[in-house]
Amino acid sequence: MKMTKKLPLIFLLLFVCSCFRVEEKLEPKISYNLKESHVKSLKNPFKPITLEERSQDWGKEFIIAKKFAKELDLYRAITNFRRAEILLSDDNLYRKQEIEYNITLSYYLGQKFDDAIDYFEKSSLCYVDKSFAAFKDLLIILYESYREIENKEKTQKILELLKDNYPQTEKKILLSTALIDADVDTLKDNYLKNQNIQNMISSYEKEKKSVKTAQLLNTFIPGSGYLYIGQKKSAATAFFLNALFIYASYDFFHRGWTAAGVITASFEAGWYFGGIYGAGEEANYYNERIYESKVTPLLNRDKLFPIFLIKYGF
Questions:
Q1: Total-model pTM
Q2: Which terminal residue of the chain has fewer beta carbons within 10 Å of its beta carbon, N or C?
Q3: Number of domains in the chain
Q4: What CATH number corresponds to the domain at position 50?
Q5: Could you tell me where the beta strands, DSSP code E, fall in the chain?
């Protein structure tokens, strides 16, 4: 009988939690540390510029641009590469494509993915094949750039080209993408033999917090969801604010001040339901930071970022 009386309350709590449910989806912000020394260490895949080419106007601009690019002064590098492109004769396709590749690479290194794609699609690089000296690197640049601008169709096409021409690189790209996108299920299922990956996932899952638990705790006791994820100040604020508004609402209704009670109760409802949603959001945010702390060192240490798969530079 007692259990039957409690059922409406249980269903009400479940309904509240479902209405304010936060999806447990990680969107970590993972960055790489690109050093000038790394860029300078990358070899140039094209033929060295000749003395005759150096003496020409386009050649002078080209040399200056490469100097800027190696120092990661990418804005000035692109400006000078563009000047070299304008000054170069139209029949010199080899140097034209070298300049176009350097401009595309510069945009990519500067994380200007929209600009990299916009420039590439207007250039003659659209028509290159495996005979192009930096073809594999170009595919890596295009893969990440299309992925960053969320062009799924072209991202998949580039991935297929990598699979057909450079299968080992494609495998590394897939692993890198799974790590960056926090695709935990794929990492657990497809990389069972990779002990570093499995150790990282295991460590993350031990430390992460349950979004549902945070919301459920905050449903029963406002503030307890925040306390669960270690936010003591937020927990205290949420608890005392809810307690204050609940007491004020009760007092107004008790004194017969219905209008004031309704207004105060509406404020309390906002704090209460907002707290449930907020606890879930904060738990998800907490998990993202934990994941970032685990995966970023792994990606940098093992050079798993796509940018570190690029073999050639300026």
A1: 0.80
A2: N
A3: 1
A4: 1.25.40.10
A5: none
